[in-house]
Amino acid sequence: MTTLTEAAPMVQVRGLHKSFGRLEVLRGVDLDVPAGSVTVVLGPSGSGKSTLLRAINHLEKLDRGYVAIDGELIGYRRSGDRLYELKEREVLRQRTGIGFVFQNFNLFPHLTVLENLVEAPIAALGRPRAAARAAAEALLERVGLADKATAYPRQLSGGQQQRVAIARALALEPKVLLFDEPTSALDPELVGEVLDVIKDLARSGTTMIVVTHEIGFAREVADTVVFMDGGAVVEQGPPAEVLDRPRHERTRAFLAKVL
Amino acid sequence: MTVTTRAPSRSAPASGPGAGPGAGLGAGLDAAELEGLRTVPARHPWRWAAGLAALVLLVQFLHGLATNPGWDWATFRLYFTADTILQAIGRTLELTGYGTVLGFALGAVVAAMRLSRSAILQTLAWAYVWVFRSIPLIVQLVFWFNLSYLYKRFGFGIPFGPTFGEFETVGVLGALGAAVLGLGLHQAAFAAEIIRGGVVSVEAGQREAAAALGIPRWRQAWRIVLPQAMRGILPAAANEVISLLKGTSVVYVMAIGELFYQAQVIYGRTGRVVPLLMVATVWYVVLTTVLSIGQYYVERYFARGARRTPPPTPLQRLRAFARTRTSTSGGTP
Which residues of B touch A89 (CB under 8 A)? Predict the structure, then answer.
């Protein structure tokens, strides 16, 4: 392992391999995400984008490879020349530093919006209830849903639910936010309100990795665009390069289809 | 995109019926004009006819109950609230209560073992369910009742090591203890499967979201998964409690004075079988009714957030029905 210094990227991914049965979903993915930057991951479905995100969060156990966030190895502890696999309790603690926004929101339907937001800060970080509440209310204000605190998720539109899910991820004040196709389950007219919230976060300097099919969003917000295909990174670079002057045939073919 | 088709919930009849949608006539839609019209609700004559036919059949049946002397309602009245019967009901409730608590507590443990990641615990839980679902309750009860034949004494201590205290089996496990143990162990096997069924029915994304938020595993189960699993667990669990309530009647084999045993004792003495069976039957129905009403409200509680608008309580439904009846009666052709 390389030594991780102060200037190290916020997210470092090295040599990720993952197979589901015979299907090799990730075949050696490397990725660096500097602090405060936005990385957008594009690629056809089945290219391993979602698995990459879930691997970063250790929701998916890896066959090979390592992930470090803010210099901290995820899922393992290094002691001398050995790597110890972490217990679930310790992985859960690490995850509080990694916000995850799901394609299908996965809000807790039996809890109100406010309860969804305060659950993890109280249960995982041990915050006092009053402080968690105040923080949650501020976050709801930020995503424009201050009046929905007592509603249940199913009483909200898809766009509103996804904004709540983003606020829920933010409630832990994570070092990095992962978005797994945050607008793919939404009606077209609701996509904008969610992207606006994500753009606002990007401006405020949150480190983010966004898996999406929204090319326009990538062009506008991304610092780096990563194009994946067949479980590997095909090319990456600033949006102007990857989106407008792609070097690889596969990237060109993909962009021709979605643009 | 907000749709505003709220039911006219105005209680003051002075404001008249709400604006009826659906009368749109293309370009010339005049809301003010439509506002002035009376809205006529749709009629369902066949719905009423079918309901009426069913009611006639019911009345016929009730008439038979009242007029056939064989039912001997005088004896029924005599014993329905007799002290011995009331005491027996207490015993029945006691058995049901202990059986439910022991059964579901142990069942939850067995379900948790079955869902755990330990292969040993999984196998043991599976074996428990296998054994206790296989043995008929009545066989088990008689077996526990005769436990002292197998084990004269039992004690607490270190396994295969020294013992700290010993008890006579007969002294600790009387008829009632054996009955509660049998009912509880039997119930636990079924409860375990019901609880497990509810837990596996909760969408995987829920646990994943909880894990992604770093919520501790115990809390994931208790706060996120179980409350949602309860929706699946409750109807089946209520079935189990009710069937346990009636199932307690099989402990008559151990001469415990619960409701059915007591009814048998009385008709053995007086020879009036049918009215005494009716005493027991009506009490079982009454108790089941109470449980069913309880079930409704518990289910309603756990359904929170499951629908966009929570379903009305029966009382609210009744009131709403009465309101529509009074506001549309008279006037319409």
Answer: 216-217
